[in-house]
Design brief:
The chain has 151 residues and is of the alpha/beta class. 28% of the residues lie in helices and 25% in strands. It has five helices and nine strands, in the order βββααβαβαββββα.
């Protein structure tokens, strides 16, 4: 079950593409958009993240930290980030496998990957917006823009 808007966002600590631990609580004081994706290098995920990459200034202008979370290992995420030029955090939820995705209610137990869930956490750590899309359905950039405008 996903956390509800108005509730504290579940904390986590995950490694970035270089093995540096990043925790949600460590980002407190800054709003954060968490973007869960199923697989590195897949077509829909790459399309979504390239759109975010190309519109990163919208997040920066709003003072929002963008973090993408996948159950892929950090080495795959690093290769993906280098290939596509992603300048935002890619965090590995590889082990314990899918623990952060489970906390946000977006882990698919049958296939072992995260669903397409996005969450806006305010500077105090409270969930302010979320969207979870079914398999194969990309999240529109307009949804992120609306969420950022609500800050």
């Amino acid at each position: 079950m996903s956390p509800q808007v108005g509730e504290p966002a579940p904390d986590f600590t995950l490694d970035d593409t270089h093995g540096t631990p990043v925790s949600l609580s460590g980002l407190r004081g800054t709003p954060v958009v968490l973007v869960f994706v199923p697989f590195a290098f897949s077509g829909t995920c790459t399309g979504e993240l390239c759109e975010l990459r190309d519109n990163l200034e919208a997040f920066q202008a709003a003072g929002v930290h963008l973090a993408v979370i996948s159950c892929d290992p950090k080495f795959a995420l690093r290769a993906w980030a280098e290939k596509e030029g992603y300048a935002f955090d890619l965090l590995s939820d590889f082990w314990p496998h899918g623990e952060a995705a489970r906390a946000y209610g977006v882990f698919d137990e049958a296939s072992g990957h995260a669903l397409r869930g996005s969450f806006l956490v305010d500077a105090e750590g409270v969930l302010r917006w979320s969207v979870v899309n079914p398999r194969g359905q990309a999240r529109p950039l307009s949804a992120y823009r609306e969420a950022l405008a609500s800050l």
